[in-house]
Write a structure and sequence with these properties.
The longest helix has 28 residues. The chain is elongated. By secondary structure, it is mainly alpha-helical. Helix 2 packs across helix 3. The chain is built from 6 helices and no strands.
């Protein structure tokens, strides 16, 4: 019994696949390709779930569409290109690292470097700017310190 509970909790942590038996292809190689593609495509309803995991109706339709395209003879790249053309890059769970997305990939690093530069300049200026007291201010400070705390 002590082994059964941890084993069951490990099984529950595994991702669930929403592929229904009627969707599966007879050809194991095509089915494996379809499953691999489905894991990289975003469910447009669930947002951060792949269509392989989602139980949404639109995800089911996308899984069927992927299988239809593969059965028609499309390559994996052609299936992805078709879906991106139809739904936009948002359908990809991991956006491409080219084109306009380069800004999204580089922006955090640029902002971090820029923030570090601004902080460095501010610290350097602060260190170089030391206020000194003139003779009158020193005498007044000495008088206040000699006076002691007031009760």
């Amino acid at each position: 019994m002590r082994i059964l509970a941890p084993a069951l909790s490990l099984l529950m942590a595994l991702p669930a696949h929403a592929v229904e038996p009627g969707e599966e292809l007879d050809d194991p190689a095509l089915e494996a390709r379809a499953r691999a593609l489905s894991q990289d495509l975003r469910c447009l309803v669930c947002r951060n779930e792949s269509i392989d995991e989602s139980t949404a109706e639109l995800a089911r339709e996308l899984r069927v569409l992927v299988r239809e395209r593969l059965t028609a003879g499309d390559t994996d790249a052609e299936v992805i290109d078709y879906l991106v053309a139809r739904y936009g890059e948002y359908v990809l769970l991991e956006p491409t690292k080219g084109g306009a997305n380069v800004i999204l990939w580089i922006a955090p690093l640029v902002l971090l470097l820029l923030g570090g530069a601004v902080a460095g300049v501010a610290i350097t200026r602060q260190r170089g700017h030391v206020d000194t007291l003139d003779a009158e201010e020193e005498a007044r400070l000495k008088a206040l310190l000699d006076e002691g705390p007031r009760s």
